[in-house]
Sequence to fold (230 residues):
Amino acid sequence: AQSVTQLDSQVPVFEEAPVELRCNYSSSVSVYLFWYVQYPNQGLQLLLKYLSGSTLVKGINGFEAEFNKSQTSFHLRKPSVHISDTAEYFCAVSDQSNNTGKLIFGQGTTLQVKP
Amino acid sequence: NAGVMQNPRHLVRRRGQEARLRCSPMKGHSHVYWYRQLPEEGLKFMVYLQKENIIDESGMPKERFSAEFPKEGPSILRIQQVVRGDSAAYFCASSPVIAGNQPQHFGDGTRLSIL
Fold:
């Protein structure tokens, strides 16, 4: 069975500072990896995804993530955050061999950007 | 292109009543996923449907919950005899093919409150 652990439930940071949101996963098979963002009272929006190839993935809004197979991690980073980045962030995996494509989500990390 | 449409956005029911949640996938998408988000938790997979077929319902509670995706019309998630523990946000996602390496597109969710 697969699982996803987001190590920080809340991350407070000042505007224009860098941020890293941590994600580790557990799986006995190869997976696809995703980061989604959820703004209040809205659905999830895809930030970026790792399918194969280069381990550094760039997404929307200046975010990037790095896949580390040996550490089974997929941490999300942004070099300079804005107030508008305040939201809930979810890491998710999908089993490459699964014929359904269902996503397994982490618990979420609340990013709080302070002025 | 319209995104994934869910209605109602908010639904209030008394214990013992029935709740019907609707999801219209994006145009051209024939694969629908339902997820539940309990307060302070991540999203949990419930069911995956294609037109007229339930493919994977491994995340559905054994009783009171059912889902359908008819040939015509939206996908419906039905909860009979609701209880307080059913209070949650229910999200629908769609994809044009089995999701896998294709990202799922999420609706804004239905927030179900049980009195």
